[in-house]
Amino acid sequence: MRSKEQGSALITTIMVMVLVLGLIAAGLTLTTGERTLASHQVKSTQALYLAEAGVEKAIAQLQVNSSWTGEGNSNTPISLGKGGYWVTVSPNSQGSQYKDIVSIGKVHNVQRQLKLTIELPDGGAVGGINPVFTNGIFGSSRVEIGNNSNINGNVASKSYIDAKNNANVNGNKITNSPLTIPVLNEGEYNISGAKSFPSFSNNSNIDLTGGIYFVDGDLDISNNVNISGNGTVYVKGNLDIGNNVNINGTVAFLVTGKAVLSNNANLNGGVIFGLGDVTLDENSKIRGSAVAGGTMSIDNNSTVDYDYAKVTSSDLKLPGALTFKIKSWKYN
């Protein structure tokens, strides 16, 4: 009788052990599956971010060149982070002002796609300037014009305008302007394809060949330098142009600090934009527009002639541009 009881207990114990082992195995399988799912979700999110990076790259490039068609492919993606992306830009059947952007991000074996259709303004031309550039000069803090200086165009400020000592404004003077200085986003200019500003010395010639030039630091151009050509120059610092410097063509200088033109400096077509103060002094001239995030100061026989054609030129990439409308947006 006792032997039978022992045998029955042994069978029960074995059955319990089998059941426990089965539950453990099921738990391990479930945990592994959950980890696999979680890993896939992480990779999917990362791939989506990469696809969005491709779209941002396309938009940045289209603002410089509306005929840009993309970069990378499935065999040679653009490496970024833990994976890569490739992006294509193609015409849309709705018309020349429409573009389809398809960007695919990939992390390991997981891909995500982002497709959008955008509408460019003016029949396909990238442009649409920020309203601050519709003035001859704009000073966010204030505008000071003095000593026989001339402004042919509107003068605007969020604060006040002080014109004295034979200063002449041939246009509207707009105080308490509702306009706001646009954001100067370094990421839109420090991009693949941006060029270094050409090296130069006194009494030399500089030829700008279009596109974006990125300067990481102050830029000082002085002493009988002649600049020709077109382009947008982003200066991550201060800008000083003086002593008989002539700039002929269409050039925009976008400055994160202060900008000074002095002693017969001449920008014969383009824009000076500074997040800090902007100063024209000692017979300096601008044909185009000048915009200051701080004080705009025009003094000592200096002149600004507003030129809409120069300011809206497709050779320039100005901040805060009204560049496109998103017509559709789809994730896959």
Q: How large is the radius of gyration?
A: 31 Å
- The pLDDT mean sits at 86
Shape: elongated
Helix and strand element order: HEEEEEEEEEEEEEEEEEEEEEEEHE
Q: Helix count, per DSSP?
A: 2
* Spans of at least 5 consecutive residues with low confidence: 123-127
Termini separation comes to 71 Å
Q: How much of the residues is beta strand, in percent?
A: 35-45%
Helix content: 10-25%
Domains (count): 2
Largest sheet: 11 strands, parallel
Secondary structure: number of strands: 24
Structural class: alpha/beta
Defining key terms:
alpha/beta; elongated; 11-stranded parallel β-sheet; single chain; 2 helices
Describe this structure in words.
With 332 residues, this protein is of the alpha/beta class. It has two domains: 46-126, no CATH class; 132-311, no CATH class. The protein has helices at 2-64, 308-311; strands at residues 70-71, 78-80, 83-92, 95-107, 110-119, 137-139, 142-146, 150-152, 155-157, 160-164, 168-169, 173-174, 205-215, 219-222, 226-235, 239-242, 246-255, 259-262, 266-274, 278-281, 285-292, 295-298, 303-306, 325-331. The strands form three sheets. Strands 6, 8, 9, 11, 12, 13, 15, 17, 19, 21 and 23 form an eleven-stranded parallel β-sheet that branches. A seven-stranded parallel β-sheet has the order 10-7-22-20-18-16-14, with no helix packed on it. Strands 1, 2, 3, 4, 5 and 24 form a six-stranded antiparallel β-sheet that branches. The protein is elongated and about 115 Å long. The N and C termini lie far apart (71 Å). 35% of the residues are buried.
